[in-house]
Amino acid sequence: METAFKTNREYKSSMLIQLLSKKENLLETYGALKNKTFSKDTEVLITTLSDALFMERMNDISFVIEDKIVVLIEQQSTVNYNMPIRAAIYLGRIYEKLLKEESIYQEKKIPLPKPEIIVLYNGKDKMPEQQELKLSDAFKDFGDEEIPNMECIVKIININKGFNEELANRSETLKGYESFVYFVREHEKSMSRSLAIQKAVDDCMRQDILRDFLRDNASEVRNMLFTEWNWDTAKRVWQEEAREDGIAIGEARGVAIGEARGEARGETKGVLRTARQMKGKGFNSAVISEITGLSKDEIERLGY
Questions:
Q1: What is the structure's pLDDT at 52?
Q2: What is the pTM of this model?
């Protein structure tokens, strides 16, 4: 008899965020959205906010690419028509992170990365393939003849199976994610969600859908599908994997402070390697700093 587990209610967003935390998947998916191919060497700076309040409200991954801030937001129920104001507040926080506090008071104009907000909709309600929401639509007594002093446009793309098929065919990651969600929904018609998820994973593996991701990230996938995924869980899973690779963060800190210089250098390399791994998986700089003891400036200078 198959065992049912308590499932993560946000399993779809957890799955999508984890998929896009891989740089190659992120470049492929965003390239498909823009109908453009990005080189694997394309520079990407992850700017996802780790603040618990925003994680509860946004379900996103944000990044800077080619002088543009891109925020990809997953929505799994109905479209939220307050998304433009939420996105505007979120963008303000990201700009705050990117700019030095004193720089906004200088007279010289600061070149800013252009924002782009994309909602990937995978809810069950019927929605068009694509639509746009504008912040100005929510302004009180706002006439068509007026030009808004502030605007925020959110593009919504329906990524349910059978919608935007040309887009899905340009991205194995996006198409695989669509198939996974479809399999879960089909199996849920006759069994519990936990069993439906397990069946969906089996379906994907048999059909070579997201096979490498599901195989190479087995422990992470299990944690995000069958637990309430959050940053504490992510840190704990990552620390367990880091120890398996021979990287002991606590020992690294102690050695760096008090032991022999040669050993400290070796452990420092381990900490840097660890920080690069976390950065490559999309962890926020504040989280990486908390785990490794590195400063935010040191983390920002690291490559993938």
A1: 40
A2: 0.67
